[in-house]
Design goal:
Layout: E1 5-6, E2 13-14, H1 17-25, E3 32-33, E4 50-55, H2 58-62, E5 76-81, H3 83-90, H4 107-110, E6 112-116, E7 133-135, E8 138-140, E9 148-150, H5 153-158, E10 171-173, E11 176-180, E12 186-190, E13 194-200, E14 206-211, E15 217-223, E16 231-235, E17 240-245, E18 257-262, E19 267-271, H6 281-301, E20 311-315, H7 318-330, E21 338-339, E22 357-359, H8 364-382, E23 386-398, E24 403-406, E25 415-424, E26 432-435, E27 441-444, E28 450-454, E29 461-463, E30 471-481, E31 506-508, E32 520-522, H9 541-550
Parallel strand pairs: 3-5, 4-5, 13-19
Antiparallel strand pairs: 1-2, 4-6, 6-7, 8-9, 10-11, 11-12, 13-16, 14-15, 14-17, 17-18, 20-28, 21-22, 22-23, 23-30, 24-29, 25-28, 25-30, 26-27, 26-29, 31-32
């Protein structure tokens, strides 16, 4: 008879014959879903928990000797999928999803599994990112067949495909978690499952400790103050951390305990908040006028173009929208959301002195997954091989927010994307304003999951009309031609679409607030449906300034200054 305790990937048991029989007999039958509506959604139609799902039938039964199916174990709900639910989640896998129970003998060779992320919106819950699928012993990291890894289901479950584990089921040795599966084969998995970030606006640096499975506090790091000192770590769901003030005592454990935190998913938390500096109201108009003069000059410097109108509207693929939306939803409230660091050093592009501008930082590994896919979409729009230069956000605008028209950094921001992640309680469309190659104003309405491609160093863009209500969350990502920081000084290469300059006579045929509905019709229909019903065309920075004033708050009475100083 064997004695002692071995740590298994999903459950651990004392390997005595009597205990083993009792333990297996106690395994619960996992709940089954025949429709997507059977999945656990919260009151906002987002997944209320992480879900590990397998096909109903033989595949589910094959996991019983290895997997503890108790609901809620390690932050996951365990389910089997049949009928419409199976077709919705696995059907797009084609031939891989076409199998019968008679042919299933080995889970790792014959079965499928998927990890559905907590916070995913109901309408896209059936389309997680490719790396979240286990397909008969393989995981396709990007969905294109280029990075396919062979894994068994235990390795899949421990990886960032599912982002699940707890201190109670694994032992930490030299940065690696070790476990023994039910066949007593030793395996290891590197410490890289979920990413979690920490941004500190406390008065002092903060000292962070990991609480191991024995309850011992293990020093992790000291977190400095400010956005630039933000740190992300690789960790696991259910890991526990404590955060102490670094002052006044030399031993942080003798100082104030600021927070205890258990890791629930990918995310970030903030300590206290950034305080916006005061801005003299009487100086705002002068600064706006000066800034617009500078931005107008900059947009005239860029020679190269990529598209007829300098922008276009599109839509995220469902799996990207699912991932981006889940990250936002799981981090949408305090302490995850902090003020974005705006101040005089960053100008008056966002009216932070009048309304809160919030920020949810995103983790590096997830960012890379998102960047790769989004870059491919922008390459298809521009017809040019690109390199990623930046991804910024998520930025949350609040009621009263305005974004001054501007252009982006010339050397790095050739072609870009605005991604609308979420809108809450927005009562009136808050249009993105983009000026085309003839400086005509277009006002584009976006819904969550929509994207706007735009030539961000060339096309003036902003949101000068105040957000009337609610919150509005965007992500920004930027690209330039591969290995060419001077792209903006070059003439268009052969084959570049001609800028659409002359579109003939245009007339307002719709209502003044019919944005993105073709309210303005021109002789050349290639102008598209987004021309502003105002029919505004800018010819100078002064025009842009008058536009900013005309669409501002109705009660705004700021005395105009005749100041020709330039930035």
């Amino acid at each position: 008879m064997l004695t002692g305790t071995l740590i298994a990937i999903i459950y651990s048991i004392a390997l005595t014959s009597t205990t083993r029989v009792a333990r297996v007999a106690a395994v619960e039958i996992p709940p089954s879903a025949s429709n997507l509506s059977d999945l656990p959604f919260d009151e906002n139609d987002h997944l209320s928990t992480h879900v590990l799902a397998v096909p109903a039938g033989k595949c589910g039964s094959l996991l019983k000797p290895k997997v503890d199916f108790r609901d809620g174990s390690h932050g996951h709900k365990w389910m089997t999928l049949g009928g419409e639910a199976f077709e919705s989640v696995f059907g797009h896998l084609g031939a891989y999803a076409d199998f019968s129970d008679e042919k299933v003998t080995d889970f790792n060779k014959d079965c499928l599994a998927v990890c559905l992320e907590k916070g995913t919106l109901r309408e896209v819950v059936a389309r997680p990112l490719p790396h979240r699928y286990f397909v008969k012993g393989k995981v396709d990291q990007d969905g294109d067949g280029e990075r396919v890894e062979e894994r068994n289901v235990q390795q899949f479950f421990l990886s960032d495909s599912c982002a699940k584990v707890s201190d109670d089921t694994l032992q930490l040795t030299a940065g690696y978690y070790t476990y023994v599966d039910t066949n007593t084969m030793l395996r290891t998995s590197p410490l890289c499952q979920v990413e979690y970030g920490f941004v500190n606006y406390h008065d002092n640096p903060i000292v962070m400790y990991w609480i191991n499975h024995r309850g011992i506090k293990v020093f992790n790091q000291k977190i400095g103050v400010g956005e630039r000192k933000t740190t992300f770590i690789d960790t696991f769901i259910s890991h526990k951390f404590e955060f102490y003030d670094s002052q006044p005592n030399e031993d942080p454990l003798q100082n104030e305990l600021l927070m205890s935190w258990t890791i629930p998913n990918h995310g970030i938390i903030g300590f206290k908040n950034y305080e916006f500096p005061k801005v003299p109201v009487e100086s705002v108009e002068r600064q706006v006028h000066q800034t617009l003069k500078s931005e107008w000059r900059r947009h005239e410097v860029v020679k190269r173009t990529f598209s007829p109108l300098a922008f276009d509207k599109g839509r995220l693929p469902d799996d990207l929208y699912a991932s981006l939306g889940a990250y936002w939803y799981n981090n949408r409230d305090v302490p995850h959301v902090v003020h974005e660091e705006w101040g005089r050093h960053k100008g008056v592009f966002v009216n932070y002195w009048e309304t809160d501008v919030n920020f949810i930082q995103i983790p590096w590994h997830l960012k890379k997954r998102w960047q790769r896919r989004l870059r491919e979409m922008v390459e298809a729009w521009t017809g040019v091989e690109l390199e990623t230069t930046d991804m910024y956000g998520m930025r949350e605008y609040t009621k009263g927010a305005r974004l001054l028209s501007h252009v982006d950094r010339e050397s790095t921001h050739a072609a870009s994307l605005i991604v609308n992640i979420a809108q809450q309680n927005v009562s009136k469309p808050w249009t993105i304003e983009v000026h085309d190659h003839a400086d005509r104003l277009h006002e584009v309405v976006m819904e969550p999951g929509d994207i706007v491609y735009y030539e961000s160093a060339k096309a003036l863009h902003g949101r000068n009309t105040p957000l009337q209500s609610g919150t509005y969350v965007n992500l920004f990502t930027h690209y330039r031609p591969l290995n060419d920081p001077d792209w903006y000084l070059r003439d268009n290469p052969e084959g570049t679409p001609e800028p659409l300059l002359d579109v003939g006579e245009c007339n307002l045929v719709g209502k003044p607030d019919d944005y993105s509905k073709g309210a303005v019709q021109c002789e050349n229909s290639a102008i598209g449906p987004h021309l502003s019903p105002s029919m505004f065309t800018a010819t100078s920075a002064d025009d842009m300034f008058q536009w900013w004033k005309s669409v501002g708050p109705a009660d705004e009475t700021v005395e105009e200054e005749n100041d020709n100083d330039e930035l």
